[in-house]
Amino acid sequence: MPSTNNAPKPWDTDDIDKWKIDPFLPSDNVSGGLAEESSFIVLFPKYREVYLREAWPGVTKALKNLGIACTLDLINGSMEVKTGTKTWDPAAILKARDLVKLLARSVPAPEALRILQDDVAADVIKIRNLVNNKEKFIKRRQRLLGPNAATLKALQLLTGTYIQVQGNTVSAIGGYKGLKEVRRVVEDTMRNIHPIYQIKELMVKRELAKDPLLKNESWDRFLPNYKKRSLSKRLKPHKISEKKAYTPFPPAAEPSKVDLQLEAGEYHIGREAKKRIAQEERMEKQKIKKEEKKREREKDFIAPDEPVDGERKKKKRKTKVQDEE
What we know:
three-stranded antiparallel sheet; 42% helix
């Protein structure tokens, strides 16, 4: 059968955006409702009770357009979302689940309701398990916020997302590309890499994206390259071990007692002769020690050098002059 891949396609023109995602409308779901009911329950902390009670009418109204039913249980401290007979979008329940998750993580309701749009997603990053020490965790989380939340605002502007740092998590809402950058910055910050380096890199990428000539080229030559600095000022180690030159042959064996006797010519001498030689060596050593001790004893009997008569008279004169003065 001949291939039809190269056949002319009059409907496929250049002005068609093949990456565009069309919105899902009720007319796209011909069958109507869903076969089974799905539900999600999310707990919220006590301090969010007052805010959720005020914002819940707006949440209910937004979910009603998608056919999702929601209930706020103040006694058990939970929020529940579930599908109904009027639900026409299968993915709406997943968006509603993310919505109640963000509301529980202290995200304002107007920002959290953006999750219901098709081109918006959410990401909840757990940061507590990235740092073992609690003091280090608090310092690095504050570093992510910056003075007067300036670092967080800069990150929101560059990535086009909304970021909320609360407790042990970081919640982000925005496009998929921006969420990927936010996760990278947050994880690097928890690994003791300052977010200012990532912000500088994002600023350079933002400017390069405006140039159509650099659209299909590598941007590595424009991006800043930060070298890791060693905290130790000492350039050389305390102990430098010199490596010996490699030799495939083993070291020469040390001469044995027999080899030493052969070199000295004592191997073939009899036992009596060996005893006689050893005794002569001992006698000679004793003789040398005797002479040394004799000299040390005679030192005490040697008379000291006495001065001459002329020198004595001079010393007497000097003492008399000193007394007169």
